[in-house]
Amino acid sequence: MPLIPGTRLGPYEIVAPLGAGGMGEVYRAKDPRLDREVAIKVLPEHLASDPVALARFEREAKAVAALSHPNILAIHDFGREENICYAVTELLEGESLRGRLVLSALAWRKAAEIGAAIADGLAAAHAKGIVHRDLKPENIFVLPDGRVKILDFGLARVNPAPQIDEGNNVTLAARTDPGIVMGTVGYMSPEQVRGETADARSDIFSFGCVLYEMVSGRRPFARNSTADTMAAVLKEEPPDLVSSAGNLPSDVDRLVTRCMQKRPGERFQSAQDLAFALRSISSVSQLSRTPAPAHGRFQVAVPRRALIVAIPLLVLAVALVAYLRWMGGGRIDSLAVMPFVNVTGDPNAEYLSDGITEAIISNLSRIPNLEVASRSTVFRYKGKEADPMKAGADLRVRAVLLGRVTIRGDSLAISTELVDTAKSRQIWGEQYNRPVADVLTIQADISREISDKLRLELSGEEKTRMARPQTGNSEAYKLYLQGRFQWNKRTLEGMQLSIDLFQQALAKDARFALAHAGLADAFALLADYNVLPAKEVMPRAKTAALQALQIDNSLAEAHASLGWARLTHDWAWPDAEKEFKRAIELNPAYATAHQWYGEYLAMMGRPDESIAALRRALELEPVSMPINRALASAQYHTRRYDAAIEQCRRTIQLEPGFVGAHLLLGRVYAVKGQHAEAGAELQKALDLSEGNSNELAAQAHAQALAGRSAEARKVLAELKERGKQTYVQPVWLAVIHGALGEPDQAFEWLNQGLEHRSGWLAYLKVDPAFDPLRPHPRFRQALQRLGLPD
Fold it and tell me: Which of 469, 484, 512 is the last residue in one of the domains?
């Protein structure tokens, strides 16, 4: 029987009914002790005598009471009054997500914003060992100010303790009795439908269903009957999301589809990763038009086990070089591995041919006294029919390795050819065309043969490393190659995809060191895009790098990424230098380690050493856009403005559309007082970036330096307004205020940048943009917070 207004439950007075559900009736009530209104959930009378229902109700109260998170409904009290069992919670004003969706679907950015808040709440619950098991729009509440709350943990399962894996992902051992189906049809995961154990990844499936409905306005598995809906969850894919949701970025489609994978291991493995991915996507200013692969997976007719052939190929290439030296009396001391040609023609197989090429380059670069052309250098030839003689002359190498990859059903055909460019002759060639089933045997045979041939070329440790595969899981290796393929695009979309793929690889093999290193590299570069505060991105780069090194302490890439995180996030200057030096020691040919070390030296005010390190990086990768720009940046930071201008121009000649070079050139012109030139370059950068916040802020800074205060203030206001929707680097706002002669506002934003641990602040000691603030005592205080001398 419903409670009437004026009824008292303990100290609480019922004011009015708010609603009812299967597991309880909810009332507005007043707590006279604290003079506040609350909500009271009462177990219905017909369930109060049911031990099972009573246990569920108490479990919900205890589960929610164990949590303290802004995205989870807070519980204040729990009690019994005669036959009435009740729980007291905060009172929410607003509407359920279901109420919003009755009107229409949500814009994808709004859906991503709400979704990230839900994922945050789930992450907090999962960290306490609590699985919700009934996530749906009715159990999500949106307040008028936009805050989001997860409600109704009535079906939650509380486990004794969450298990934390090496990737900081929560794995929960569910305790549902086998065969019992619990949840809401249409949102339950396949394992819930089958009555199997439901862990944290089950909530992620339900989350995917909710997010699908938010952006499309329809339920993904809705059918005419309960039985048909449950069958669809188990066996069918939801209707294509992009076609039903209009202007939806492919990133969102991929994320939703990954959440709703039938197998738990193919979903996001933690709600924390899910929240991070959503915020990263929602920060992108432009829609991606890249078509999403079917079912969110990179479909290509490549047998799984065939991919393992990439590993023996890497080792084989090393053996060939060693054999070549033996036959040629040691005269071959330089080599270029040309991009392997994807004869199949399927663009979805490009990651395989590119991945093999890149991995061979990486392995060969570690051989002492062998100069190997860098990836950025040789990939200028991608998509072209390379003439080995001309390529050898252009690249100034003695030998060229060519390769072709063909996929035919269950066979993988790979042909290789090694050409002596000085004598214009083929010195070695081999064709591999084997059944997929024989690949593992072939790998073992080739590794054994190579071990013998490299006896005089490599140390025992090097031979062991060459023969040891990084992973025995071919699916993990495929995902890793796909991740590197996306990472090498150096676009925001590619970086986000690479993070997803590296995480999927680690879900297959948690001890795959290269995948951890790839994840570290991706997070480290993602921080440069300023789509999220560095304090959210760089700790994840550091964690991934540490995990890689825990597995394999000889990975130069991981040491370099750890150094960059220690530098730009931790501001641990000596530790950063130690990691960069170790990376260079392990792999002297790793150009990025030289680049980051050079940038570190510039930050420390060691200009000559900085320029020397960056020139060495440029020798290793002469056409790398980031390294070319890094050299110009170091020249700018060391006040060598004319040299910086010339280096920027050379970089633009290499790639006229490179935004970073135009941006830096405009900044150099601005601090040098060449305002017309600065305006022209910064407008180019702004146009090329399609209105990115960094380029817009640089334009405002230049306008302020040129005395065009009104224009600068107009852009500054636009940036602050934009910051309400997406991340805008607070340090940019600080330097604009500084150039306008407004130190109080400048230091207010600078302090916010310090709180965000902005990567740009690593340059605080040397960047000319901070010059207007240097005379102030607060600037010295900021330097001290970073541990930098005046």
Answer: 469
- How far, in Å, CA of 182 to CA of 505, rounded? 31
Judge if 526 and 460 occupy the same domain.
Answer: no
Domain count, the chain: 5
- Catalytic residue list contains 251: no
Residues 429-461 pLDDT 10s: 666 565 434 433 333 333 333 234 333 354 555
Do 131 and 61 fall within a single domain? no
Give the count of beta carbons closer than 10 Å to the beta carbon of residue 50: 13
Give the tens place of pLDDT for each residue, 371-408.
778 777 888 788 777 777 888 888 888 888 887 777 66
What is the rounded radius of gyration, in angstroms, for the C-alpha atoms of the chain?
A: 30
Q: Which of 371-380, 473-482, 742-751 has the highest mean pLDDT?
A: 742-751
The whole-angstrom separation of Cα 52 and Cα 43 is 12
Least confident of 13-22, 214-223, 652-661: 13-22
φ, ψ (nearest 5 deg) of residue 473: -100, 110
Q: Is residue 722 part of a domain?
A: no
What pLDDT sits at residue 1?
Answer: 62
CATH number at residue 516: 1.25.40.10
- If asked whether residues 224 and 334 sit together in one domain, one would say no
Entry field: residues in the chain:
790
What pLDDT is attached to residue 320? 52
Last residue of a domain, one of 551, 575, 599: 575
Looking at the fold, whether 140 and 231 belong to one and the same domain comes out as yes
Q: Is the pLDDT of residue 161 over 50?
A: no
Looking at the fold, whether 208 and 339 belong to one and the same domain comes out as: no
Q: Does residue 194 sit within a domain?
A: yes
Q: Are 288 and 328 in contact (CB under 8 A)?
A: no
Instruction: Look at residue 647 and tell me if it is in a domain.
Output: no
DSSP for 440-501? Answer: HHHHHHHHHHHHHHTTTTS-HHHHHHHHS-S-S-HHHHHHHHHHHHHHTT-SHHHHHHHHHH
State the virtual CA torsion across 763, 769, 775, 781 in degrees, nearest 10: -30
**Domain identity same for 518 and 382:** no
Domain of residue 20, residue span = 8-90
Whether residues 463 and 495 share a domain: the answer is no
Phi-psi sector, 558: left (phi>0), alpha (psi -120 to 50), beta: alpha
* Active-site residue (options: 31, 120, 134, 521): 134
Q: Is 409 exposed, middle or buried (0-12, 13-18, 19+ CB in 10 A)?
A: exposed
Quote the pTM value.
Answer: 0.68
Report residue 180's pLDDT band, with 50, 70 and 90 as the boundaries: very low
Q: How far apart are CA 398 and CA 335, in angstroms?
A: 6
